[in-house]
């Protein structure tokens, strides 16, 4: 009697294109309610997908996602991959429409864990109304990699492109929530650092919030403060825009738990990655 797929582990045959791979793909794709954004979608298992896009500027982004541990307080690699892709589109002013997904999986990886991470990814796509339209699966030998890598490409459509180089003299800077949560949550989980209180990753899709900001108007520039955190994002925006930025550090939101642990470790919360925040430059008359 064949074991349920959720009780199995990934083998080399799951990436070899035969019956086992077909069975795996068939079960995993059912996790995604939206599987097409055009005539050819995920269910067709063709060599690619087609997209029927609304009018506007098409925005494309791609990223590879690795994190250790794969699950951390507030999220996991699936939520991180989907949110990171959606957020890269959002800060360029693009509504997420479709995403592709490439999986590189270590032999022996539990399929139940894989399904859990893909369920997290699917939930983010459901939240923003984007479809998973095509994908790929590869299996590496035991010990040749560390568990799981996800590669994504996101496709969105923007009425007006927002650049990170659009800051102008007199603009105000808005950060949409406390900074450093994600970086500190992952660091503490990876290193086994005891935490007083609760530090959870902020990983989440920012498109709903960005969409509201765009509807209000006055947005001149945007960036998501991922690698290098808020400090790196602001430096890059200032350099590209040819302006200087004056910060009032006491007005930058940092949770007490994050600030306390950062001080203990000798690092700045402003250099810690965020995965659910936007840095928005706005005209002063629209800042409030």
Report on this structure.
- The structure is a single chain.
- The protein is of the alpha+beta class.
- It has 2 domains: 154 residues, 60s Ribosomal Protein L30, Chain: A (2-Layer Sandwich), CATH 3.30.1330; 115 residues, PurM-like C-terminal domain (Phosphoribosyl-aminoimidazole Synthetase, Chain A, domain 2).
- 30% of the residues lie in helices and 21% in strands.
- The protein has 7 helices and 9 strands, in the order αβββαβαβββααβααβ.
- The chain has a 4-stranded mixed beta sheet with strand order 1-6-4-5, with helices on one face.
- Helix 2 runs parallel beside helix 3.
- The longest helix has 18 residues.
- 43% of the residues are buried.
Identify the notable features of this structure and list them briefly.
alpha+beta; 288 residues; 4-stranded mixed β-sheet; 9 strands; 7 helices; Phosphoribosyl-aminoimidazole Synthetase, Chain A, domain 2; 60s Ribosomal Protein L30, Chain: A; 3-stranded antiparallel β-sheet; flat; 2 domains
């Amino acid at each position: 009697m064949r074991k349920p797929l959720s009780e199995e582990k990934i083998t080399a045959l799951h990436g070899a294109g035969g019956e086992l791979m077909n069975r795996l793909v068939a079960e995993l794709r059912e996790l995604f309610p939206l599987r097409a954004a055009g005539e050819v979608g995920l269910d067709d298992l063709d060599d690619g997908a087609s997209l029927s896009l609304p009018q506007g500027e098409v925005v494309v982004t791609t990223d590879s996602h690795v994190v250790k541990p794969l699950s951390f307080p507030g999220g996991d690699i699936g939520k991180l991959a989907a949110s990171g892709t959606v957020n890269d589109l959002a800060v360029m002013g693009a509504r997420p429409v479709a995403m592709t997904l490439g999986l590189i999986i270590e032999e022996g990886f539990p399929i139940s864990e894989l399904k859990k991470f893909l369920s997290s990814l699917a939930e983010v796509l459901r939240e923003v109304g984007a479809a998973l339209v095509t994908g790929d699966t590869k299996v590496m030998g035991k010990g040749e990699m560390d568990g799981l890598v996800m590669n994504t490409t996101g496709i969105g459509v923007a009425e007006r492109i927002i650049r990170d180089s659009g800051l102008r003299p007199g603009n105000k800077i808005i950060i949409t929530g406390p900074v450093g949560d994600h970086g500190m949550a992952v660091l503490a989980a990876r290193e086994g650092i005891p935490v007083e209180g609760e530090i959870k990753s902020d990983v989440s899709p920012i498109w709903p919030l960005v969409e509201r900001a765009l509807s209000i108007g006055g947005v001149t520039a945007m960036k998501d403060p991922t690698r290098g955190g808020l400090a790196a994002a602001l430096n890059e925006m200032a350099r590209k825009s040819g302006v200087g930025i004056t910060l009032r550090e006491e007005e930058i939101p940092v949770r007490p738990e994050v600030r306390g642990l950062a001080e203990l470790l000798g690092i700045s919360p402003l250099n810690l990655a965020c995965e659910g925040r936007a840095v928005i430059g706005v005209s002063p008359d629209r800042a409030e």
